[in-house]
Amino acid sequence: MIESFLELADLFPNAITSGIIMSIACSLIGVYVVLKRVVFISIALSETAACGIAAAMLLNIHPLIGSVALTVMVVMLLSVNYEMSRIPRDAVLGVVFLLAAGLSILLVSKSGFGLHEIRAMLYGDLILAGSHDRNVLLVAITPALIFFLCFLRPITYTFLDRDASQVMGLSCRLWEISFFLVLGLVVSAASKNGGALLVFCYLVAMPATALLLTRRLAAVFVISLVVAIMSTLSGMTLSHHHDLPTNQTIIVLSCVVFAAAFMLRGLVLRLEARGVRLGNNNSNDK
Amino acid sequence: MKDNTLIECINVSIAYGIEEVLSDVNLKVPRGVVLPLIGPNGAGKTTLLRAFLGLMPLKRGTLRCHFAQLPPGYLPQHKKIDPLFPVSLRQIVTMGLYRELGFWRRPDPAERARIDEALERFDLTEHQAKTFGELSGGMRQKALLARAFISGADVLMLDEPTAGLDAASERYVLRHLLELNRNDGKTIILAHHRLEDVSHLAETALMVDRKTAKYLPAEKAWQHSETHFWEDL
Fold first, then answer.
1. Between these two residues, A37 and A230, which has the higher pLDDT value?
2. pLDDT digit string (tens) for A27-51?
3. Is the torsion defined by CA of A174, A151, A232, A216 positive or negative?
4. Which of A149, A159, A160, A222 would you mutate first to test chain B, the one with the most B CBs within 10 A?
5. CB distance A217–B87 less than 8 Å?
6. Which of residues 163-222 of B touch A (CB under 8 A)?
């Protein structure tokens, strides 16, 4: 297996670095996607990013520009306060997802590309990432990630207790929009390289695994990051060794890790409950 | 003579959409008091409290809040905080120092001592490593109270601080509130649903009902709790 990895590193170095960059950014930001219970936003934004790429192809501009522009527009739409609205934010997200998915196919059908080319352009494949893709990804994601890590405290406080944060002088709306803009930028850049489904996996499966394993925020970030990088490298190696599709191998492997963490958590809870029962019985005997 | 008014409402109206919850409220809240906001569910106690905090836009009228340099310490209903959020009780209390710590700074030894003191004051020291989700209802309220307290604010605004607590925890929280008022001089404004406690907390209560708010003697609130709120007032 080590030989396979070395061979992979030799043949697809850009794919490996792109995968690591994506896994770092998405697994960290994804912790708040899961905690804020906006999992569906990430898949809607991925699809929006794909739609932006399609529009860019038709307009003959750089795909990242189209992807970021459309994603930012959707982020602004989602930042509206839906508390007093007749429909929940999820319903708006659903409509955004449907529109983006349908429109992206309609747009590329007029672009003159072949179906495989379209799929690769819209939904990406990590193994095909080139040095240009990797550099664009790095340029787009680095400032977003630095911003996120620098302002982790106000973002955390806003998500933890909106009203109290507002009273303390934090502009909750500003920080929420900032977070969603960071998310939009990361998703749109990563989707172009790795595909919407892989980005969704990084944003949800890795943080969810970490949240199952620890209840300390700092540890959640670390575990999410480690699981993401390990799943990426192992998944890429496995896919290369067994000639499997790269994205799907990473996704399935991540889900297996999540399932293992889920079972481990259940086991720990059972043992804890058993320990409490035994403790109670002993005290009753005395 | 120095004006003792902390909050002044002049013809304040607040609405959710087109429906007015409070209409033409006129009142003054003095400093240094314990003021329970009482009234039936949905009458607008939380809405009025949130308006005092600047969290609710006014439909009409003027609301003047003469807070000192620090904003009020705020204790929301503990159900508003997601128990799945992996933050420790100590981190929640530390949040009260946000105005001093800003975006990046970690608490210095003096600030850490203040956090320890707040935890000790509310009997939370041994639970400080637990996450919010691992705490009982009473512990959660005490954690949020410690957070409001540590900010150093002169005014504490509390939304149903005893909701969901057992009798012992409820007494504990209320006793602490009275101590904060008597010993530390804090003004305490709280939305409260248990009318039988009101006369122990304050001499005067603010009854919120039928779209308006009026002061009444605290004892009268309990006397009228079995009947319709306004009929004999």
1. A230
2. 999 999 999 888 888 888 888 888 8
3. negative
4. A160
5. yes
6. none
CA-based torsion, B35, B41, B45, B50: positive or negative: positive
What ipTM is given for this predicted complex? 0.85
* Strand partners for B188: B34, B156
pLDDT digits (tens, 9 = 90+) for B38-81: 888 888 899 999 999 999 999 999 999 988 778 899 988 767 78
CA A63 to chain centre: 20
Are A32 and A159 spatial neighbours (Cβ–Cβ below 8 Å)? yes
Q: Which two tokens stand for residue A91?
A: 């319903």
What is the per-residue pLDDT for B233?
46
pLDDT band at B232 (very low <50, low <70, confident <90, very high): very low
SS3 A104: helix
Question: To the nearest 10°, the Cα dihedral for B133, B134, B138, B144?
Answer: -50
8-state DSSP, A32: H
CB contact B54 to A (< 8 Å)? yes
CA A20 – CA A139 distance, rounded (Å): 14
DSSP letter for B207, please: E
Q: Is the pTM here over 0.80, yes or no?
A: yes
Query: For the domain A2-285, what is the CATH code?
Result: 1.10.3470.10
Does residue B80 contact residue B28 with C-beta atoms inside 8 Å?
Answer: no
Query: Measured between alpha carbons, how far is B147 from B149 in angstroms, rounded to an integer?
Result: 5
Overall average pLDDT of the A263-268 stretch: 91
Report the CATH number of the B5-223 domain.
Answer: 3.40.50.300
Q: Which residue has the tokens 């890795």?
A: A206
If you count them, how many residues does chain A have? 286
* CB A134 within 8 Å of CB A64: no
Would you state the pLDDT for residue A286?
A: 56
Q: How far apart are CA A284 and CA A261, in angstroms?
A: 35
- Interface contact flag, A217 B91, Cβ < 8 Å: yes
Phi, psi for residue A9 in degrees, rounded to 5: -65, -35
| Closest residue in chain B to residue A210, using alpha carbons only | B86
Question: Closest-CA residue in chain A for B158?
Answer: A164
Res B199 pLDDT > 70:
yes
Cβ contact A258:A205 at 8 Å: yes
DSSP 3-state of B156 = strand
Joined together, the tokens standing for residue B10 give 């002049």
Q: What is the pLDDT of residue B50?
A: 92
Largest CA distance in chain A: 82
